[in-house]
Amino acid sequence: MKEIFKQFKEIGIIPVVVMEDAQYAEQLADVLCDNGLPCAEVTFRTEAAAEVISRMVKHRPELLVGAGTVLTTQEADLAIAAGAKFIVSPGLNPEVVRYCQAKGMPVAPGTQTPSEMEQAIGLGLDFVKFFPAEPAGGLKMIKAVAAPYGQLVFMPTGGLTPENVRAYLADDKILACGGSWMVKQQMMAEGDWDGIAGLVREAADIVREVRGRKTVNSLYRKDKSDYLNKRKLKIS
User: Fold this and answer.
1) 174 CB burial (10 A radius; 0-12, 13-18, 19+)
2) Residues 162-200: tens digit of each pLDDT
3) CATH number of 200's domain
4) Of 26, 129, 209, 222, which one is the catalytic site residue?
5) pLDDT on residue 2
6) What is the DSSP string of the chain?
7) pTM for this model (two decimals)
8) Is 129 a catalytic residue?
9) How many domains does the chain have?
10) Which residues of the chain fall below pLDDT 70?
11) Cis link prior to 38 (omega < 30° from 0)?
């Protein structure tokens, strides 16, 4: 498994970001890093996605930023050029998977059926998305359908909430969970950054409660300290 995906286990919940206006990128990056979830899957559902990734990466280099809803090799190229560190797609497109692999880019395609999981294994993958998680039967479905595939671990996304995410995080087959409830577009547009920060902290605390990690990810502590020191130097 790619080292970058191993970091997902400690982060636990990966914020899924749909952003129509890239002007919010830097502020969201600060909120995620400063409140315990230093990661973002920026979806290519909007034309702003590549710019959002680029601005977040440049503003907070310690933030683990990836691209979601990548459907084509052209979108993969845009994500890579913008600085994405991983790629996620809703379904399993062998062309996109092989293209990302050839570029050395970690990729997690969406799966739901045994056939798709076997196809993922055939492509050399051991980490996949399970989408849409809740409508497809949730954790019970993952346990049932994944039983023959001991080498696979999953990132369920779709329908996850603070109320049901604990059960997913507690299961050994779940590397991380994807969730969009923390970073709603309307809250960004209304400038409710305190509200977003509260939801991010709540999610980070859930991970800490279930998996016993500190709220601020230790993998990023050094990078964050370096960033803060640089800011202090600029200010002084």
Assistant:
1) buried
2) 999 999 999 999 999 999 999 999 999 999 999 999 999
3) 3.20.20.70
4) 129
5) 77
6) --HHHHHHHHH-EEEEE--S-GGGHHHHHHHHHHTT--EEEEETTSTTHHHHHHHHHHH-TTSEEEEES--SHHHHHHHHHHT-S-EE-SS--HHHHHHHHHTT--EE-EE-SHHHHHHHHHTT-SEEEETTTTTTTHHHHHHHHHTT-TT-EEEEBSS--TTTHHHHHTSTTBS-EEE-TTS-HHHHHTT-HHHHHHHHHHHHHHHHHHH---SS-GGGHHHHHHHHHHHHHHH-
7) 0.90
8) yes
9) 1
10) 1, 213-236
11) no
φ, ψ of residue 20 in degrees (nearest 5): -80, -30
Residues 6+ apart with CB under 8 A from 7: 39, 64, 217, 219
Type of residue found at 81: A
Residue 158, amino acid: G
What's the pLDDT at 198?
Answer: 98
Nearest Cα residue to 125 out of 169, 94, 82: 94
Instruction: Look up tokens 């803060």; give the residue.
Output: 228
Q: Given 2, 41, 47, 118, which residue is catalytic?
A: 41
Output the CA angle 230-60-25, nearest 5 degrees: 135
The whole domain housing 91 covers: 3-235
> Which residue carries 């990734």 as its tokens?
53
| Residue 42 and residue 52 in contact, taking contact as beta carbons nearer than 8 Å | yes
* Burial per residue of 115-149, b for 16 or more beta-carbon CB atoms within 10 angstroms, e otherwise: ebbebbeeeebebbbbbbbbebebbebbeebbeeb
